[in-house]
Design a protein that fits this description.
Shape: globular
Order of helices and strands: EHEHEEEEEHEHEHEHEE
Distance between the termini: 10 Å
Radius of gyration: 17 Å
Mean pLDDT: 97
Largest sheet: 6 strands, mixed
Structural class: alpha+beta
CATH topology: Deoxyribonuclease I, Chain A
Strand content: 15-25%
CATH superfamily: Endonuclease/exonuclease/phosphatase
Number of strands: 12
Helix content: 10-25%
Low-confidence stretches: none
Number of domains: 1
Amino acid sequence: MRLATWNVNSVRARCDRVVEWLGRSDIDVLAMQEIKCKPEQFPREAFEAAGYELAIHGLNQWNGVAIASRVGLEDVQATFAQQPAFGKPGQEPVVEARALGAVTGGVRVWSLYVPNGRALADPHYDYKLSFLDRLREAAAAWADEPTALVGDFNVAPLSTDIWSEQDSEAETHVTAESRAAFAALADAGYEELSRRFVPDDNKYTFWDYKALRFPKNEGMRIDFMWASRPLADRATALEIQRDERKGKGASDHVPIVLEIDPA
């Protein structure tokens, strides 16, 4: 099975590009982040015409996650246990559309969009750390079955995962607290697979649109695939598809594709 994750940065804006890529790359399951739409606004027809079933979780024009599968979708869950809520001061906190799980092709897949954190003094940073801590707690319950935690984690775990640790817009991605919360998923029984298969420096997954970041290769590695041991043992290959950042209408993230032995 070929499992992919991709922060598409608006599925309506990039529908044709994503669907064309699904066919060209022979993808069985795609976890999407930042779809930026409600379920009724999602361009279902194009995906369904290509043979994909959909699970969608979106509340507004921000955030949003989805899973497209041609090998079935069962036990769909929007949000995980104790997923934290967030609200601006004076507003009622909301559990945002940042997590969607489903069993597909015999694997429990969670499409995850971890909060950015914004700035160290911003309440969003505490929200980010809480989200990662609660995710670890929830993930421990799925560790004995084939489970994939995939998506945009908004953490650059190593100094080599970011073009400059002094990048002012990534200060919450490189703190000791963020990196420790990310690494703690290993304590729940998971392995981060992109590091096993693509260990080289400068294998980024995100480049900002501004300041010619992509041509200069000033990027970050913030999209990842964590796998429980029953799934990690079946992983045979992984690719970060850098070329999908090229061309007109590209997302600022690129897809990661994992090969899973069906045995």
